[in-house]
Amino acid sequence: MPRRRDVLALFLILLPWTLLITFWHQPLWEQPIRSEISFCVLPSRLRVTRASKSHQRGFRLYESCVTENKRITKANQMRYIYQRPPPWSDTLPALHVITPTYSRPVQKAELTRLTNTFLHVPNLHWLVVEDSAQKTALMSRLLENTGLNYTHLNVETPENLKTQKKPRNVRIPRGTMQRNLALRWLRENIDPNSSHKGVVYFADDDNSYSLELFEEMRWTRKASVWPVAFVGGLRYESPKINSQGKVFGWRTVFDPRRPFAIDMAGFAVNLQLILSKPQAYFKLKGVKGGYQESSLLQDLVTLSDLEPKAANCTKILVWHTRTERPLLVNEGKKGFTNGSMEV
Amino acid sequence: MPRRRDILALFLILLPWTLLITFWHQRAVNSLIPVPKDNRTRASKSHQRGFRLYESCVTENKRITKTNQMRYIHQRPPPWSDTLPTLHVITPTYSRPVQKAELTRLTNTFLHVPNLHWLVVEDSAQKTALMSRLLENTGLNYTHLNVETPENLKTQKKPRNARIPRGTMQRNLALRWLRENIDPHSSHKGVVYFADDDNTYSLELFEEMRWTRKASVWPVAFVGGLRYESPKINSQGKVFGWRTVFDPRRPFAIDMAGFAVNLQLILSKPQAYFKLKGVKGGYQESSLLQDLVTLSDLEPKAANCTKVSRESKSS
């Protein structure tokens, strides 16, 4: 009997040690991750709703215990740094970026370089709203291929209200219905009582954005403002800031008496404010030129609520660039046209 | 004595099992970021990236989490790899109001591309503070050069054959820099590409050109008065002509950003430069390429030249 006990004891000793040694040689807990140039295909779900609590993405990196194994250590570094888009964080407020867009030859080019910028920004939720009766295949493919966290919407501006021939007060400024649809989507899909923190920004698809801009706007409490280049016929327009760091006016040539003499890309609004004032939308008709931004902001904030960003409005972090229409004069000549090539 | 043996035996049993259970438990609570798709073929074998992420034990310590995140945000561009060929991207630039805007969005694209060496050449007598600051703030691997195109050769009033096409002297300076600074006998692998600062580039494009053996070509949108121009590819996958309306009989009827050249080829033919004068409109690219390659050397990219991943535009 002692013999059996000895054998049993020996077995119970040898087995776990054998397992341990095997695992140390062939780490089963090491998951090979390829972090080279990866076109990160993340599901296009919205991460910002009520589900966010379950996304406990707190993490920390361990230096591998086996530090002479440089491969693992290096992998930790490599993996950590480089992923598109950056991993979602539970501590950073989400940036809900609303981009109206419409079909024209340069659309895909504009959106390509815009997404190349967005892919650097953590916790970005992109609401793309097409001015179309149906979602186009081009947009659907593009959005899916980026790997960004997006919501794809569409609403068509009625033809008779689009045309330049109509007087301004009958025309709906381009992009208005699309931006309003995105605001409505946010109001219908995000619970104001949840702990979700976010900021809403309107980003047109032909502007240029620095990465610093997104980090400036991220901590907006009510509404934040900053200078914008190439608007109002100036090198830049800007809010005027007094010595207390408050906005008291607008450095513009064109109608500085507007309630908010600021370009669409020059402000961001805290999401809670948007959700708590569900009547606030961009006015559709009867909006004088340059007053569109005011038509929304005057229902949300007063001048004293505004938070100046970009080093007290002394730096340019966004440019209202415009894209020239490409010359397509040779299309159709010598039988040249190939509709199947997507540009 | 039997007692001691029993204790020893018990210890030798409990210890390894405790270790095993600890390891298994840690593995079970592992939460990993989804594995990205890997399109890389040649380099991936040597990059077995084992790692794991832990849920922070102290998840309520938001500061640590935030620090990790912030550390992440600032780590751009991707770390340098020893296996990927380098992309030497040559960008001539000049002062004008939209310069900083154009370069900002260009760098936002470049910051995704591994092993990119950016040669920026200003058309100026001196390096400008704007450019120096911009380049330093991006964190990109760059070389900052400058050469001023003589005023009398710039002006539009001169006939075309007396004028130097914009950017030519700057591109040539960059080529000379490469020839003077990279040893052709080193093991350095690279590809040279000319990227103007007002175009739009997809990220896919850079991975297409990276494996260029001699010279590769692909379609370009919004050039030559067309939605796109493209090389013509035959059934053997060889370039036999050019799908352009404007002068398709040019030796290389292709836009500046529609081709890339292997660095070794550039280094081994040190006389090959863009011709400065007497270049007919649209022939600038040919003036360089005809000294480097023949039509049959060209490697079609972008799915045999059926995809557009680069568009030419000015704002």
TrEMBL record, chain A:
InterPro entries xref list: Glyco_trans_43, Nucleotide-diphossugar_trans
Domain of life, per lineage: Eukaryota
Required co-factors: Mn(2+)
Molecular function GO terms recorded: galactosylgalactosylxylosylprotein 3-beta-glucuronosyltransferase activity; metal ion binding
Active site: E293
Predominant place of localization: Golgi
PANTHER family: GALACTOSYLGALACTOSYLXYLOSYLPROTEIN 3-BETA-GLUCURONOSYLTRANSFERASE 1 (PTHR10896:SF21), GALACTOSYLGALACTOSYLXYLOSYLPROTEIN 3-BETA-GLUCURONOSYLTRANSFERASE BETA-1,3-GLUCURONYLTRANSFERASE (PTHR10896)
Subunit annotation: Homodimer. Interacts with SAR1A.
Protein name: Galactosylgalactosylxylosylprotein 3-beta-glucuronosyltransferase
Upper classification of the organism: Eukaryota, Metazoa, Chordata, Craniata, Vertebrata
TrEMBL record, chain B:
Principal subcellular localisation of the protein: Golgi
This protein's record includes keyword Membrane: yes
Sites where the protein binds Mn(2+): D198
Keyword line: Glycoprotein, Golgi apparatus, Manganese, Membrane, Metal-binding, Phosphoprotein, Secreted, Signal, Signal-anchor, Transferase, Transmembrane, Transmembrane helix
Reactions catalysed: 3-O-(beta-D-galactosyl-(1->3)-beta-D-galactosyl-(1->4)-beta-D-xylosyl)-L-seryl-[protein] + UDP-alpha-D-glucuronate = 3-O-(beta-D-GlcA-(1->3)-beta-D-Gal-(1->3)-beta-D-Gal-(1->4)-beta-D-Xyl)-L-seryl-[protein] + UDP + H(+)
Pfam families: Glyco_transf_43
Sugar-bearing residue positions: N304
Topology with respect to the bilayer: Single-pass type II membrane protein
Protein name as catalogued: Galactosylgalactosylxylosylprotein 3-beta-glucuronosyltransferase
Organism: Cyprinus carpio
Lineage of producing organism: Eukaryota, Metazoa, Chordata, Craniata, Vertebrata
